[in-house]
Amino acid sequence: MPPDDTFLRRAVAVLTAFRADDDGLGAAELARRSGLPKSTAHRIALDLAEAGLLERDGARVRLGLKLFEIGQRVPRQRVLRDAAVPYMSDLREATRQTVHLAVLEGAEVVYVEILGSSGGPRLPSQVGGRLPAHVTGVGKAILAFSPPEAVRAVLDAGLVKRSERSVVAPGLLTKELERIRREGVAYDREESGAGIVCAASAVLGQDGLALGALSVSGWATKMRLAAVAPAVHTAALTLSRTLQG
């Protein structure tokens, strides 16, 4: 018997309704975010909870442990994260700032690992969380070393404004990606959030295309981008060589 495509689509809509900082969602909010009728969202949530993909917490549901376990089996992210963590630790030690590892998915970056620092700003990024690629250092670093169709997907999705300094003009973003390809370092100058800056570099595979990116983030008033950029670039180059074998 073929799978129920309608159920699968609705199940995906329910699962992707959750955000990284959600501790649990009620039926009404789940329905609003998924675009499904409340009764449908509730029924699917119960089915997913029975399968272990969601967990019930009174009248609310949250993402289940089984989803985390499945996510840990994703080869690209697991291999990239496992290889990157030692370099990320060294980078945090050298800069005393928060270090990110992210990959590109569509028009967004997904944060695979974050090593925080004491005294750093509250960042909009979380492990498993997403941000529009064009407003982040890691996103721009990846796009600079991605196929043209990946850049086109970001432009076609529309360049949303996350802060007063977000670059939303396609021409300006394209020119910035050209500079990043030449220099190897991307910057977020309060584009993803006020007061936050970061320097990022792409992690490259054997074909010269980005597998992901590393970044260092901190307060705009305390962290000098020119000072941390060489360390980020060196870490990304060394990690690239490790992954290329």
Automatic annotation (TrEMBL):
Keywords of the record: DNA-binding, Transcription, Transcription regulation
Phosphoprotein listed as a keyword: no
Protein species of origin: Actinomadura monticuli
Domain HTH iclR-type, chain residue ranges per copy: 5-65
Stretches assigned to coiled coil: none
InterPro entries (alphabetical): GAF-like_dom_sf, HTH_MetabolicPath_Reg, Tscrpt_reg_IclR_C, Tscrpt_reg_IclR_N, WH-like_DNA-bd_sf, WH_DNA-bd_sf
Alphabetized SUPFAM superfamilies for the sequence: GAF domain-like (SSF55781), Winged helix' DNA-binding domain (SSF46785)
Top-rank taxon, per record: Bacteria
Name of this chain's protein: IclR family transcriptional regulator
